[in-house]
Every structure is written in C-alpha cells, then in structure tokens.
Write a structure and sequence with these properties.
Strand content: 5-15%
Oligomer: single chain
Order of helices and strands: HHEHEHEHEHHHH
Number of helices: 9
Largest sheet: 4 strands, antiparallel
Shape: rod-shaped
Number of strands: 4
Helix content: over 70%
Distance between the termini: 29 Å
Strand order of the largest sheet: 2-3-1-4
C-alpha cells in the first residue's frame, strides 16, 4: 500500500506540474515569512547587545585617596557580578584627555589640577538592565572614597524602553507573518484539491479507498514542503545573511544552523497544515460535477 501511495504521489505531481510549482512556491514564501520573523527577533537582540555595550558609568573618587585605597576600591567594584571591567583614569590622564578634547590647557591659569581621578565602569551586556544599574549606583554610593557617580540616565532608560518596544513590534509582526504563511499554504491546498475534483470522482467510481485518495495529497505536499525548505535555506544562506551583514554589520552566520533547522521543520509543518485539512475534506461520497 505504501508503494502505491508513493507511486500515485509522483504520478499526481507529473500530472499537475503547474500546481506542484505553485504549491512549492507558496510554501517557500511562507517559510521565508517565518524565517523573517525569526531573523527580526535575532536582529533586535543583536541591536540590543550593541546598545548595551555603549553604556558607561563614571565613578569620581575623593581627591585624598591614596594609591592603595584606589586599588582596593577598584577590586571591590570589580567583584560586582554585573561589572565586566573597570578602567582607572588618574588626575594627570584626565588633564591630558581634557586638553585633547577641548584644545585648552588650564595649567597656565590654575596651579593645581582640579580634575578628579575616576573609574569608568563597563558592564556585562547579558546582565545589564535598568534595575541592575539602579542597584549598582546605590551600592557604590555607600562605598567610602566614592565622591560622585555619573552616567547618562536618560540615555540608558531610552535604550531599555526602545528595546522593549522593538520586542513588542517583533512579536506582533512575527505572529502576523506566520499566520499569513499558514493561510497561504492552506488556501493553496484547498485550491489544488478543488481543481482535482474530477480526478478524485473517477477514483471513487473505480472503487478507490479513502486513504488512496487522501495519502497521495499529503505525501505530495510533504515533498513540496521539503523542496521549499531547501530553497529557502539556500536563499537565506546566499542572499539574506550577506545583506544583513552589509546593512547591520552583524555576523549573522552564527545563526544559520538554527534558522536552517527552523526552515526545514516549518516547511514540513506548513505542508502538513495545508494538506491534511484539504485531504480531510475528501469523502467517498460521489457528487455530480
């Protein structure tokens, strides 16, 4: 019986080449819509990581701190789980930086260097959030030897608000794209099944069983799904990944294996989702055309 299903599947594909092409094309488009939604999620995550990496916090130290006290204070800050690194800027280095940025040297006017020594704190991207930053600021403010903590609060809050909005938009668009993909495949399956009514009627008149009518429909659609998956994977590898790298400067190749598996399974799921309901509508009842 399985041999018959396979033979009939390929026979039906040969008899309806245009329908086979249209089904494969539709499933390919549906897979690409699903892959696009997944790519949007990954891109938003990458953009979020880039924005988070730009967050810096400056901790100004009291001027009378000795060198060993500065070292101890740095070690204490580095122990925080959210901290990636701590860069020390001495008063002399701060003066040189000021001259480089402004082109002015205040040493001709002032005898003493008024610029304080400081730490620039860089955080771990995977652990940073508005809550962890607030907690870090409160903890550092309690440390003896810390004079002032400075960071662009509005910039940081805007980053996290922007990331939250991106995720919401991605979820909405992704859901819409995947539902559209399912609808396209199902509609195509219905159209192709309706176009073969005469063929199915003749099979029923010849005494074919219900499974003999339904299974070739499902098997052929499954083949189309696998072919569509392969096409979408090739398109993604040779077109989408290079374009994403060029536009966003993101190494998207590291997501390829995951997205390839996603495309394959989505192709199988979409083909079954389109063919099983369409095949399920077939009965042994013989209707006049």
């Amino acid at each position: 019986m399985i041999r018959y299903y396979i033979t009939e599947t390929f026979s039906s594909i040969k008899r309806a080449k245009l329908a086979a092409f249209f089904t494969t094309f539709t499933i390919t488009i549906a897979i690409m819509l699903g892959a696009a939604s997944l790519s949007m999620f990954f891109i938003s995550e990458e953009i979020g990581e880039i924005l988070k990496s730009k967050i810096r916090m400056t901790i100004f130290l009291e001027p009378e701190l000795a060198e060993n006290e500065v070292t101890n204070l740095r070690s204490l800050i580095e122990k925080d789980s959210t901290v990636l690194s701590v860069q020390f800027l001495s008063r002399e280095e701060a003066r040189e930086q000021f001259i480089k940025e402004t082109g002015e040297d205040f040493s001709s006017i002032l005898e003493n260097n008024p610029l304080p020594q400081s730490f620039t704190v860089i955080f771990r991207k995977e652990m940073i959030s508005s809550q962890t930053l607030d907690r870090f600021v409160k903890d550092c403010a309690k440390i003896e030897g810390v004079d002032e903590i400075n960071y662009d609060y509005d910039f940081v809050i805007n980053i996290f608000n922007f990331l939250d909005k991106i995720k919401l938009v991605v979820v909405i668009i992704s859901t819409a794209l995947i539902l559209l993909g399912f609808y396209l495949v199902y509609s195509t399956g219905r159209l192709i099944t309706d176009s073969r009514r005469e063929q199915y009627r003749n099979m029923k008149l010849a005494g074919a069983s219900l499974s003999a009518i339904r299974m070739p429909v499902i098997f052929s659609s499954l083949i189309f799904g696998i072919i569509a998956s392969a096409l979408s994977i090739l398109f993604y590898y040779f077109i989408v990944i290079p374009v994403i790298h060029m536009v966003f400067q993101i190494d998207f190749g590291r997501y390829f294996n995951f997205i390839a598996m996603f495309n394959f399974f989505l192709g199988v799921i979409l083909s079954l989702a389109g063919s099983i309901p369409a095949a399920g509508k077939q009965t042994l009842e013989i209707k006049n055309l």
